[in-house]
Structure formats: structure tokens, C-alpha cells
Amino acid sequence: MGTVLSESRYSDGTGAFGGARVKKLLVMMPAYNEAASVAGVVAGVRASLPEATVLVINDGSGDATAAEAARAGAVVLDLPVNLGIGGAEQAGYRYAAQRGFDAVVRVDADGQHPAGEIHKLLERLEAGDVDLVVGSRFLEHPAGAYRPGRLRRLGIGFYAKLIGLITRRRVTDPTSGFRAANRRAIVRFAERYPEDYPEPESLVYAYRLGLRVAEVPVAMLARQASVSSINIPVGAYYAIKVTLAILIDLLRSYKRRPS
Amino acid sequence: MMGEGVVASVDTFRAVSITISVLFMLAVIEFIRRNRLKERYAILWLGAGVVLIVLSGWGTLLVDLTRRLGFDVPLNALSLVILFFLIVIVFHFSIAISMESDRTKRLAQEIALLKERLRRVAPEAPPDGPAE
Questions:
Q1: A170-183: per-residue pLDDT in tens?
Q2: Which of B43, B103, B106 is facing A241, going by the closest CB pair?
Q3: Mean pLDDT of each 10-residue bin along chain B, 132 residues long
């Protein structure tokens, strides 16, 4: 099942998207101080998916991230203040919702997510039975694959257990930001999306909205330029914050809309 | 030194303190649930609630703390703890408000710059948005 992209605009506007091929694809990357790597990542995506629109959301960077992204040929949303990953990502979903894209692939601007792996997410999405596809580092273990540090694995394991308990589905990589969303997910995420580090929370949120989530095995690389924005005290704070957010989200009731 | 009467009233005091703390925490959670309060700003309140519950409910912790601080009644010790949390939380808010006012200023400037550019690019556009 190949990924065929054409310039034709998404037209029916119903949000319906079942088993259909992706016609209008947006590849988005939230970027905070990624001037050193963003141009290379944009160029990589444009080379492997020439028909896709590449959107860089510059999250109030203090460096030349926006200029570098534009130079590499990306559409740039230049946020005047820093919103955090969740807020920046939601800006991308809102762009996709307004401009009628029928699929969004989210990749990191630091080069962790190889452009050559995007087709794996799209193929799964095009099967039409899921709304959100998450690329997982842990479903397969090819030699030389990226392995996060021990503390990070501990956090990932904790969220995987917590989310598994809540959604009753196997989740192996809850902090992966390498994802593909269809029109149905785009519209819901444009309305409301978790803040700060949204990945684990957004999985529970998607489940609660009635969106169908699936993981596919992907390879990821070590970061190209920057270091992780999470250190130990900040990590501990977010662990508490995200856990609290996930648990309180369970007390909310959501209207599930038909697909 | 604490008299018999004071020690006897500690249990009632504990119960009241725990009840109020639990009700308060439930209120905080309800506000988060309704999207009226962000987790970011609720964590300190919930932390204060947990500390008050532990302090009031855990063995002789409250009585020990009262003695150690040289107070006669547990209410004084608890008041001091509450005061500490209030100072931390209010200071935290002062910092948060300062950051927000900076962000608001930036946003306003950005919009003004955009409006100026829009007027140059599309002069037929109405010169002013709604005045505020």
C-alpha cells in the first residue's frame, strides 16, 4: 500500500475519512531553538514527501529557527511567545483544520524522527480503521536502534502502564511525538489539546474522545543538535503534573462524535 | 506544657482540619475538571492539602509539632504551616503574573506590527480593528 499524494484539495469537509488515501498531507514540527537542525529536517521531509506541505511552528525561539525553516522551504507559524510543545502543536492542528488537510504527521525538529519512516505511519492511517497512529521505538528492536537513558525509560514505562490501565490497550511508547492524525483527530485536537508535554496525556484524551489509536514500529535516531528539554527536577514536576492531568481527565465526560 | 483538656480537644480539631482539607482538595479537583483551573497552578494547592491532611491525621505529628514550635494549641502550629504555604503560593502567582504580563505585552506589540504591515500590503483593508 503506497502513499499517493496529489495536489487535489480535501473537499467534502465532513471529517469523514475511512480507508481513503491521504490527499492533502501536512507534516508539522513544533520547534524551540532548533536553528541548527530544523533546515536539515525540513529538507529531508520535502525530499521524501515532495507533495506534502511542511509546517514549522516556531515556539518563540530566541534563535534563527523561523528564518532557517523558511529558508528550507517550510511554511512557518511564528509564535510571538513560547506556548510549550502542546500549545505549539495545537497551533499546527488548527492550521491543518482551517486549511482542510486530511492528515497531519508530527515530527520533531531535532531530527529524531527520520523522514524515511513517515510512510509507515501513513500506511497504517490509510488502512482507515484508526484515527491516530503513534510511531513506537519499542515494538521492534533492530540493531543499533535508539535507546533512551534509564531514567527516561522509567518514565516511559510508568506512563505505558498508567495509560494501558486506563485505555485497556497495549501502549509501548507513550512519550513518542512521532504521530499521524486523520481529519477526525485533527478537528478534535484543534478544539482542545493538552499543554506542556502533551504526548502521554493526549493518548488518554484521544481514547476518551473515542478516537482509535494504534502504534506502529519505527526507528528513531538520537537527537541531532539539541539536548532534551527535560532534566530531573523538571521531569519530576511533569511526571506529577501529567499524572494528575490524566487522572482528572477521567472525571470529565466527552461527547463522542461518530466517525 | 499542654493540659489534659487541650489534648482531648486535639481529636476534634484533627477531624475538622482533615474534613476541611479534603473538601478543599475536592473543590480544587472539580475546578480542574471543569477546565477552570490549570494543573500547573493547582499542584501547590493540592500539595498544601496533602500536607495538612498528613499533619492532622498522622499519629502524634501535630501534637509533636505544636510542642516543638512552643505553641499551646495545635491551631497555632497549623496556622503557621498554612501561612507558609500561602506565602509560597502567592509568591508563585506573582512570578506567574509577571510572566503573563510580559507575554501579553509581546502579543499586543506583535498584533500592532501585523496591523501596520497589513495596511501596507492591503491598503483597502479597514485601518482599525475594534478599539480596546
A1: 999 999 999 999 99
A2: B43
A3: 55 88 96 92 92 88 90 88 94 95 93 90 65 48
Q: How far is A128 from chain B (nearest CA, A)?
A: 32
Confirm or reject contact between B114 and chain A (CB < 8 A): no
pLDDT of residue A228: 62
What pLDDT, on the 0 to 100 scale, is given for residue A193?
A: 95
To the nearest 10 degrees (0 to 180), the angle between helices A199-208 and A150-167 is: 10
Q: Are A212 and B11 in contact (CB under 8 A)?
A: no
- pLDDT score of A20: 65
Percent of chain A scored above 70 by pLDDT? 85
User: Domains (ranges, CATH) in chain A?
Assistant: 25-249 (3.90.550.10)
**Cβ-contact A50, A32 below 8 angstroms:** no
Question: In angstroms, rounded to a whole number, what is the distance separating the alpha carbons of residues A56 and A31?
Answer: 7
* Residue B128 grid cell: 482599525
Q: What is the ipTM of this complex?
A: 0.72
Calpha distance A204→A245 (Å, rounded) = 10
Domain total for chain B?
Answer: 1
The reply to whether A4 touches chain B by the CB within 8 Å rule is no
Q: Is A196 on the interface with B (CB under 8 A)?
A: yes
CB-CB under 8 Å, A241 with B32 = no
Q: Is residue A26 within 8 Å of residue A91, measured between CB atoms? A: no
Grid-cell match 534563535, residue found:
A63
Provide the shortest C-alpha distance from residue A138 to chain B (in Å).
30
pLDDT at A42 over 70: yes
Q: Which range marks the domain in which residue B50 is found?
A: 4-121
B61 in any annotated domain? yes
CA atoms A16, A22, A25, A30: torsion sign: positive
Instruction: Verify whether the Cβ–Cβ distance B107 to A81 is below 8 Å.
Output: yes
